[in-house]
Design a protein that fits this description.
This protein has 15 helices and 54 strands. It is of the alpha+beta class. Strand 47, helix 7 and strand 48 form a beta-alpha-beta unit. Helix 8 crosses helix 9. The protein is globular, with a radius of gyration of 32 Å. The N and C termini lie far apart (67 Å).
Length: 949
């Protein structure tokens, strides 16, 4: 008993010390955001020995770190470097170094000319010796995609030479320095990484490697800039340069075949001043050194009334039998546009909305640039010397793989159904099988519901059919349809789907080699299906997922699986527990003879798993709410994870926080979960103000790290938690037609469950949400006065007016959202008028007694910003405290960092005032008159004077 008392006293002392230490930590401030780091662009070398990644603060100069996989002490740090890649022999790393941000800012303040601003540099590091080589004034650099240890460095134009200084008394006339010659080309250095072989080429305009590093193509510019000198091909092994073509106006889209035997490009002889030049396609035989024009506007077989498109990508078939390119209609016959007798001020400018149009005018205008640059697939058959037009204006969507040995592709045509897109985003598509050698098309299915794809061996076309909630395959040889998931005793559609649209699938892992099997998912397990139907479907995870409520998904380790999944390779599975949120990896058996065995399965989130191309070495990211997702090195067994990156060491100085999973019941007794965030120095005997944030379901993000950052639209959870708030994030389950009541039935009992624990100051709670969450905030404050303040970002408050509006970001009608997706009404305004009225908070604003901070920006492309105005004006008319923040030129969520910082300050000031009794800032008490706009921010409290912007 004495020992037990000593133990308890010791434990109490230990906990007290920890509590004191936590209390001594400072709270996050808005000044912390800029220095908070993120790790990105992590790469592992082909042999797995080196790992590179960028570490960047939110604002300021970052760094590049390159770390040895097996010895983390061996590390290279290059300040301000990025865009790193490893050489294919694993001996070197190359990347860009940018100028210091403070230097750039200072020079911008001085109105420094663009030519005089600092330019990027290049570094090359020898990973064995650690020697670093640097090059200044670099415009760009490139390495081959797959093979070859070559590096191309394109330099900026040379600076004018300054005249030499004369000594005092020297009367000798000094010649003026030679002016730089006018050219849009600059020096290109091509060298091996070790520098033993190098080539220097002047006046280069553009360049590129063949995929396997055998050749480099480049375009040289003349000194008068009127015509390019030509296009050339450098044999990197021999150093011999072949002149491909000269004297044309421009050269573009060069492409070398994988065999290095053929080279194609697009060119034009029309003047640079021509508004609509014609383009020609050329093919050069590298082995024979012969060049020929293979397509122009007059070529037989090309798109009727069309020409070669400069926007179309050039590709070669895998066997070099065909050259794929793009064609486009010749838009030259618009008389009104080309009429030079009409002044600009006389030209009529209008949009005509026609009921019969497939797309409404805003969508057409939004997509105008894309349509003008759209190209239709064509092919040149090298043996037959003829052009085959494959795509056209009706059937422009051709899904083909130029690297595939298959001679077939898929084409889809949604034009018969496109008119419905304003209210039905799950329209069908007529789907065809295309013969790439002849251009002939065979109908597979009308109004196909899904995203059809070819199996790797080309035996099947397959898709998930949402209308039947089934995986379907079309057997190309027998021309028959097969329901691949018919004989499964589980659902393959999303069982939590709660909107009026058709449910999506749980996905698929793909096909085995030679199309011998198809791997698909139910909610938990992986199934292998025989497409011939001879073998029964096999649960290759043996039902372990369903039994243990673990979601298993195949983890792809190979960068390319062109021929399908290789059953001889390790069958690694990611694993996620549905309820306790554990995450990790298991090893499965693709033959289904052994149950999945755990590799690692912990209270973390794992992401970014990457395998070295030629070694069984891995990198992975791992996080919790307390631990940033740093990079770790490991192997296939994952018995040891070695930390390689160490972002945000300053976090240990901050009163951070914890998160716990909360289980509760809705008003109709449906079990739900939520996340409760508490300060690190949490004291259960205290009463804390509580923020409530929500958006659909968030509980699966239990182990996500959340960085302190200025807000794009919502409260920053770490900031509020660090500043002695509780933050509760409940999940929401929706009933069709009742989005507002559903939010109430899920959020309110969740809040009550937390309050019942005794540590919430129930008199000082607030809610905040953005977009769909903003709508729910607006609804809740018409139903309850339990919250002392509310923040609603971009809220829809009037579904009747929003229904007929436009999502200006896409040009789409908003009808689909109410009939099929997130708003969940499930019918038109005239079919279900009462549902629109009952779910529109605007009609119940007279019930609101909660002060509201609204943010709605005047360039919102998702929710019409007049919705925020409708809410504000109603509250103003009712004499209820409300503020509307309208950031000029900003979208649905804030993009500009200065505005994000501003919103973060105002959010904290607003909620601190209402929940903590802090003095109100001047912008809340005095407003910000238009005459003061741009002169003051009025963050100050009381009579503190203005802050100059």
């Amino acid at each position: 008993m004495i020992h037990r008392k000593k133990y308890l006293l010791g434990l109490l002392f230990f906990c007290t010390v920890l509590s004191i230490q936590a209390q001594q930590k400072r709270a996050l401030t808005h000044a912390d955001y800029d220095g908070w780091e993120s790790v990105s662009s992590d790469k592992i070398s082909a042999n797995g020995q080196w790992v590179g990644f960028e570490v960047n603060p939110q604002d300021g100069d970052g760094r590049l770190e390159i770390v040895n996989h097996s010895n983390a002490q061996k590390r290279f740090v290059i300040p301000r470097a990025n865009r790193m890649s490893f050489s294919h022999d694993n001996n070197f790393a190359v990347g860009r170094i940018v100028a210091a941000k403070d230097t750039i800012k200072m020079l911008k303040l001085k109105k420094t000319k663009a030519d005089d601003m600092p330019k990027d540099s290049l570094f090359i590091i020898n990973l064995a010796s650690g020697n670093v080589e640097k090059m200044a004034r670099v415009k760009s650099f490139a390495t081959p995609d797959k093979e070859g240890n070559w590096l191309a460095v394109h330099f900026e134009k040379e600076l004018p030479k300054k005249p030499a200084k004369k000594e005092e008394g020297d009367t000798t006339k000094v010649a003026s320095p030679e002016k730089p010659k006018k050219t849009d080309g600059t020096t290109l250095l091509v060298r091996s990484f070790d520098g033993k072989v190098s080539y220097e080429i002047d006046r280069v305009k553009s360049y590129g490697f063949s995929e396997n590093g055998g050749y480099l193509h480049f375009v040289k510019a003349t000194e008068d800039t009127l015509k390019n000198a030509g296009i050339f091909l450098l044999d990197l092994k021999s150093g011999v340069t072949q002149t491909i073509d000269t004297g044309k106006t421009d050269y573009m889209s060069p492409k070398i075949s994988d065999s290095n035997k053929l080279f194609a490009y697009i060119t034009t002889e029309d003047s640079l001043k021509a508004k609509k030049p014609y383009y020609d396609l050329y093919l050069y035989d590298v082995t024979k050194a012969t060049n020929q024009k293979i397509a122009d506007k007059n070529t037989v077989g090309i798109l009727a009334g069309g020409m070669v498109s400069k926007s179309g990508r050039i590709n070669f078939s895998a066997d070099d039998s065909q050259v794929y390119f793009g064609t486009t209609p010749d838009y030259r016959d618009f008389d009104y546009e080309s009429d030079t007798t009409i002044l600009d001020e006389e030209r009529v400018k209008l949009d005509i909305w026609g009921w019969q149009d497939a797309e409404i005018q805003p969508m057409q205008l939004r997509n105008k640039g894309r349509e003008e640059n759209r190209s239709f697939l064509a092919a040149y058959n090298i043996k037959d010397k003829r052009v085959i037009q494959i795509g056209d204006e009706q059937m422009y969507s051709i899904n083909y793989d130029p690297k595939s040995t298959l001679k077939i592709a898929l084409a889809t045509d949604d034009s018969p159904y496109r008119r419905e897109y304003s209210w039905n985003i799950q329209i069908g598509r007529d789907t065809y099988l295309v013969n790439l050698e002849t251009g002939s098309k065979t109908l597979i299915k009308k109004a196909l519901s899904g995203n059809p794809q070819l199996s790797p061996a080309g035996k099947y076309v397959y898709w998930y059919d949402a209308s039947d909630s089934a995986w379907v395959a079309f057997d190309i040889a027998s021309k028959t349809f097969k329901n691949l998931s018919k004989n499964l005793d589980v659902n393959v559609y999303n069982e939590q789907h709660d909107s009026p649209s058709l449910p999506s699938s749980y996905g698929a892992a793909g096909w085995l080699k030679d199309d011998k099997g198809f791997l698909l998912y139910d909610k938990y397990d992986v199934w292998k299906v025989d497409p011939t139907g001879k073998l029964a479907p096999q649960n290759i995870t043996l039902g372990v997922g369903r039994t243990q409520t673990i979601e298993f998904r195949r983890q792809r380790l190979e960068t390319e699986e062109r021929e399908g999944i290789d059953p001889s390779l390790p069958f690694m599975l990611s694993a996620f527990h549905e309820f306790n949120k554990k995450n990790g990896f298991f090893i499965g058996d693709i033959n289904g003879k052994k149950a999945p065995s755990e590799i690692i399965f912990t209270d973390n989130r794992y992401l970014g798993l990457s395998k070295a191309e030629n070694a069984n070495l891995l990198t992975v990211r791992r996080s919790t709410y307390q631990e940033y997702a740093d990079v770790y090195a490991t192997d296939m067994k994952m018995s040891t994870l070695t930390q390689l990156s160490f972002a945000n060491p300053q976090q240990k100085e901050v009163n951070w926080g914890t998160v716990e999973l909360v289980d509760y019941l809705t008003n109709d007794n449906v079990p739900l979960q939520g996340l409760l965030f508490k300060p690190e120095n949490f004291d259960p005997a205290k009463k804390y103000p509580m923020m409530v944030y929500f958006y659909e379901r968030n509980s699966d993000g239990l182990h996500n790290y959340r960085a302190p950052a200025p807000s794009a639209s919502t409260i920053n959870i770490p900031y509020f938690v660090s500043n002695e708030y509780l933050v509760f994030v409940p999940d929401i389950k929706y009933d069709l037609g009742l989005p507002g009541p559903s939010a109430y039935n899920c959020i309110i009992p969740g809040v009550q469950a937390i309050v019942a624990r005794g540590f919430v100051d129930a008199d000082n709670m607030a809610i905040q949400g953005q977009s769909w969450g903003g709508y729910q905030v607006a609804h809740l404050i018409t139903r309850t006065n339990m919250f002392k303040a509310a923040g609603a970002g971009a809220p829809v408050v009037n579904m009747t007016s929003a229904y007929g509006g436009i999502r200006w970001g896409t040009g789409m009608s908003r009808m689909f959202q109410y009939e099929q997706t997130q708003s969940r009404i499930g019918g038109t305004l005239w079919e279900k008028p009462m549902y629109y009225l009952q779910n529109s908070p605007l009609f119940y604003m007279d019930r609101v007694k909660t002060p509201v901070l609204i943010m709605h920006n005047d360039a919102d492309g998702a929710v019409p910003w007049y919705q925020g105005i409708e809410m504000f004006m109603a509250l103003k008319r009712l004499n209820q405290p409300a503020w509307l923040l309208q950031y000029n030129g900003e979208d649905h969520n804030l993009v500009q960092r200065k505005n994000r910082k501003d919103l973060s300050i105002r959010l904290s000031q607003f909620f601190d005032h209402y929940l903590k009794g802090a003095p109100a800032p001047l912008w809340m008490t005095e407003g910000l008159p238009a005459i003061e706009k741009g002169r003051t921010l009025k963050y100050e409290l009381g009579d503190g004077g203005d802050s100059e912007q």
